[in-house]
Every structure is written in structure tokens, then in C-alpha cells.
Design brief:
Blueprint (H helix, E strand, L loop, with lengths): L1 E5 L3 H17 L4 E6 L1 H6 L2 E5 L8 H6 L1 H18 L3 E5 L2 H14 L4 E4 L12 H7 L2 E4 L4 H8 L5 E2 L3 H12 L4 H7 L7 E5 L4 H15 L6 E6 L5 H8 L4 E5 L2 H7 L2 E4 L3 H8 L4 E5 L4 H11 L7 H6 L6 E3 L5 H13 L1 H18 L4 H16 L1
Parallel strand pairs: 1-2, 1-4, 2-3, 4-5, 5-6, 6-7, 8-9, 8-11, 9-10, 11-12, 12-13
Helix pairs in contact: 1-18, 4-5, 5-6, 10-11, 10-16
Length: 380
């Protein structure tokens, strides 16, 4: 069968590449055409556009590149119609993908599947109307989404497990790097490590990293190591770090988390990855204007937490320092607890175990691929 897949960022490229592998195993004649990245290209098929040509986040960047975004969207719609796939598979990235879904659903008979559903439970809940109208099958990777879609909105979905569980499980089973080798390769010191995961977009990294470094630098017996985002350059990080004694590693986030004593993590998938490595963490996310967001979050956001760890556990397992709470004083307080308090560390790791249990076992891409192929064959 012919599969057309659209992703809009690095995490989508990773998850889609694993899904493609699973589809290929179950469908040896699988053909792929996609908007994606290097990992998807490595699996095979035809890449129409790299996701980096789509990834504009925030009001100002979107307005500045609106003509390019609209041109890419128009080309994407036309390309799907001309290629006539057996299915269109969308991966997260709802701002772009839901518009494409609307077009394809209204003008063709191509089924539209969504893998890694839009997080409308957090914001823009009105998008449920678009999903009900334009999406034929929805595949969720977060267990709490089942109640949200099925009980609250009467829209049946498939929970297939979480691919991050697969990725971390596979890494731990296959990677043989020792801590000594990691330290030597990256020219680190023998001090224990505090990992800094500050996001992937320029302004996000700048806002979060400056405050993380200010707070964590007070722990002189530790070394600070940044997990560099592949989309950002070494020079950009150096412009933020200045003359501070902070190291950077690229494409080694999992080993960094495995060998770190603790981590400061910007909310997102990274919080879940950190939990699956059993590394104590503080969730840090600075936003401008901070005080305005603190006031508005109760109105705009529909959830109690922003980190996946707490959302999955449905309680506070890790401390979240958001907006005005994200300052050097608070970061220092919370970091001190997860570095030195055995009670705090043990309590957090108990919560991590609960999160792993709720996620279920590995195999999310395989489960999703099996369900997709069964649905496609049934409707043929």
C-alpha cells in the first residue's frame, strides 16, 4: 500500500520513522512519500520537503514566513491528491496537519489517520470539531487521552502505547557506552552532572537556559552539561553561555540523562524521557510576559499540569516551575532537594514507576501499524 506521511518537527520525524519501519514489516510492499526528516529518509521512500522548511513557531515567525507556509501547504495538498495514497497519516503538528486533513477529506476519498493526536485537551479544544469531521482514525500515545476523547467528546480512539517507552527501552538494551567513555569523549570533568534540557527553539532556549545556568551554577561541586538541540548551532549556545563553565553535547541526550545526577528540563517529551531514565528533574518553562501567563493559564489551559510526567500520573510527581515561578531562586530550591534529599529522590522515583506502569509496555509503533493495516484492509 501507499502511505503519505506528514510531520513538522524533529520528534515527529523520529516517531514517524519508527512507524514506517513497523508498517514495512507488516506490509512488505509499502511505499512511502512524506514531508519529514532525515530519520524518515533513512527508512526509505520519497521525501517531498524537509520538516525544517515547515517549522515556524510563534506569531511573529509565522507572520514573517506566511507566504512560504501557505505555498508549502498548497503544494502538499496537490501532491497528496496527485500521488493518490491508500492513506494519509498525520503526526502531531496540528496547525498545518488539520488544514491538510480538511482539504483531503472534503475533496477525496483518501482515509486520514492521525498518529500522535493533537493536544487539544490542553488548548484549542474547539479543534475536536475538525477531528470528528476530518479524521477517520485517531491513534493516541498518552493513556489519559482515552477518557478525554471517548468520554468527554464521544469520539473513539486507539491507545497504542507510547513510542518514547520504546525508544528508551531499546536504547538501554543496546547502547554499551560507559560513563567513563561518555566523559572522555565529551571532555567532561569527573564531577557529577546536572543536565540542562532547555528546549529546541531559539527564543525558548535563550529564555530557559539563562535562568537554568544562573541557578545551577551555584552548585560548584557539579558540572553543567547542555543537551544541544540538533536544529541549533554550537555558536548560538556559546552566545548564551558566554564565559561560563558549561559544556554542550549534541545527539547524546539519552546518555546524558542516563549519567546525570539530576536535570532541569523544559516541558515536553523530554520530561517523560528523563523520567524513563529515572533521573530526578525539575520542569522549567519561562514565558513572556510571565505574570500575564500566570494569570491566563487558568483560563486558557484546561489541564492541571504542563509536564507529561504529571499528566500521566494525574498528580504532581515532578515540580513544575512555569512563567513567574521559573526564576533562579525557585530553581535552586527545587534542584537542591533532588540533589541532596534522599526522601525527595525516592518519592520522585516512586512516581516514575507509576508513570511506566500507566504507559504499558513497549511496542507502540507495531501496535499502531497493525491497527492501521487492519482498518485499511477492512475498508478496501
Amino acid at each position: 500500500m501507499k502511505y503519505y506521511i506528514i510531520v513538522g518537527e524533529a520528534s515527529g520525524d523520529l516517531h514517524a520513522s519508527e512507524l514506517m519501519k513497523a508498517l514495512s514489516q507488516k506490509d512488505p510492499k509499502a511505499e512511502f512519500r512524506f514531508f519529514g526528516g532525515d530519520l524518515m529518509s533513512a527508512v526509505g521512500g520519497t521525501r517531498v520537503k524537509h520538516y525544517k522548511e515547515l517549522a515556524y513557531m510563534g506569531i511573529i515567525p509565522v507572520l514573517m514566513h506566511l507566504r512560504t507556509i501557505l505555498r508549502n501547504m498548497k503544494m502538499c495538498k496537490q501532491d497528496i491528491v496527485e500521488w493518490k495514497p491508500d492513506v494519509l497519516i498525520l503526526v502531531d503538528y496540528p496547525g498545518f496537519n488539520l488544514k491538510v486533513a480538511e482539504y483531503i477529506h472534503s475533496r477525496t476519498s483518501i482515509p486520514v489517520y492521525y498518529y500522535i493526536s493533537p493536544k487539544i485537551w490542553a488548548w484549542k479544544e474547539h479543534r475536536i470539531k475538525n477531528i470528528k469531521r476530518d479524521i477517520d482514525q485517531l491513534f493516541s500515545i498518552l493513556p489519559f487521552e482515552v477518557d478525554f476523547f471517548e468520554k468527554k467528546h464521544n469520539y473513539p480512539i486507539h491507545y497504542v502505547g507510547n513510542p518514547t517507552m520504546d525508544e528508551v527501552t531499546h536504547f538501554l538494551a543496546t547502547d554499551t557506552t560507559t560513563k567513563e567513555a561518555f566523559i572522555e569523549h565529551n571532555q567532561l570533568s569527573d564531577k557529577p552532572i546536572i543536565a540542562l534540557l532547555a528546549g529546541s527553539r531559539k527564543q525558548e532556549v535563550k529564555d530557559n537556559l539563562t535562568r537554568m545556568i544562573e541557578a545551577a551554577s551555584r552548585f560548584e561541586e557539579y558540572q553543567l552539561v547542555i543537551a544541544g538541540a540538533p536544529s541549533l548551532s554550537l555558536d548560538y549556545y556559546k552566545s548564551i553561555i558566554g564565559d561560563k563553565d558549561v559544556k554542550i553535547v549534541f545527539n547524546q541526550t539519552y546518555n546524558l540523562l542516563r549519567f546525570a545526577q539530576a536535570a532541569l528540563v523544559t516541558s515536553g517529551t523530554a520530561t517523560l524521557e528523563t523520567a524513563l531514565f529515572d533521573t530526578p528533574q525539575v520542569v522549567c518553562y519561562y514565558l513572556k510576559p510571565a505574570r500575564l501567563f500566570s494569570l491566563l493559564r487558568k483560563i486558557v489551559l484546561r489541564v492541571k499540569f504542563v509536564s507529561l510526567v504529571n499528566l500521566i500520573a494525574d498528580r504532581e510527581v515532578v515540580t513544575e516551575l512555569i512563567a513567574s515561578d521559573m526564576n533562579a531562586k525557585r530553581i535552586h530550591q527545587e534542584l537542591e532537594a533532588i540533589l541532596y534529599s534522599k526522601e525527595s529522590i525516592a518519592k520522585m522515583k516512586e512516581g516514575y514507576a507509576e508513570v511506566r506502569e500507566r504507559l504499558g509496555g513497549a511496542g507502540a509503533p507495531q501496535h499502531a501499524a497493525q491497527l492501521m493495516i487492519e482498518a485499511l484492509e477492512k475498508n478496501r
